[in-house]
């Protein structure tokens, strides 16, 4: 078990036991087993949050990174917050059911046939209930045989449904069209349905994690783009693009990043892993120039369209893999003192990326960690390039789970890296 998860499990075990006040009917399988994939089924958020904060402070004490950790920022929605949810089709005693799976690294396919989940919106449960009722009927068997995942993306008012199937055929399209018509009558918040082809049957609901590998997509109904409004800007992006799963905290994250970076009119701003342009178009709009870098072609097209939609003309977007090799020519013109924001995926940055950014001698860097147990190694990488951790702000971005998001500000160390004395490296332990 990772260090923070272990500390959090200990802290949660010492917390008073009290089930969530609205837990009736949630987080149970069809055989009445209680779901064990997160803590939301047995612990109210008001008790979970202080336990999480205690574990976080202990983790930080063991890490000894320098500055004290800022207080954990509470999620406005402790439950029912997720904008993206998924179910994997599993067979239960010969009957197809839609199951939650353990999405943590190394979690494999540990599954729970749960429809109503405490960290998901009620509208998602209604969709899963309808789809599960449809796929057990004989006319749907061809679709059922091909179905791998049912995924829901959207906002509080509009949902897009993605059916990941082994192969898209004319018969699958016909059956899905029938499903779509009934689903939109039963769940009017559904505004789009699409098929996504993936023959790998892996643990990732959109197939390969490499976005350059093209997959067949077929729109069945409606609009398949997702709308969100963050930081006073309007964003529209494909339902297959990455987006934040806890929309209730995004404005706070943007505001905190802006405070730390101090973006001004004459500054240069670089947003690595920019996605559909969230930080580029909210923070970068206040800079002299802003560059967003992203490897997903669909996300880059959405970012460019979002810049036009919001009337922002000082930004440009570059599509490339974010590696040391690709960043070198891209950053060759970066002026010393530029501002950087890094928001990588759960796996963190590729080898050499931190070093390539530091080589440009940025004035301030904000690095977001959505997996806190990666921090020790990456903090050491920043230190070795002559940058110090100046401030760290944690966000309870994923209530109910074992994860914390931490925003870290790095600034140049006062002593050049070549003249620094070696510092001991501390790794959290139990």
Task: Describe the structure concisely for a colleague.
The protein is α/β, with parallel strands linked by helices.
Key attributes of the depicted protein:
alpha/beta; seven-stranded mixed beta sheet; 430 residues; 24% strand
Q: Could you explain how this protein is built, in words?
A:
There is one protein chain. This protein has 430 residues and is of the alpha/beta class. 28% of the residues lie in helices and 24% in strands. It has helices at residues 3-13, 45-63, 122-135, 141-146, 170-186, 250-261, 278-282, 297-309, 324-330, 353-359, 375-384, and strands at 84-92, 95-101, 111-112, 147-154, 159-165, 190-197, 217-222, 225-230, 233-238, 268-272, 289-294, 315-319, 339-342, 364-369, 387-395, 405-412. The strands form 3 sheets. The chain has a 7-stranded mixed sheet. Strands 12-11-10-13-14-16-15 form a 7-stranded mixed sheet, with helices on both faces. Strands 8-9 form a two-stranded antiparallel ribbon. Strand 10, helix 7 and strand 11 (289-294) form a beta-alpha-beta unit. Helix 1 (3-13) packs across helix 2. It is globular. It starts with a helix and ends in an 18-residue tail after the last strand.
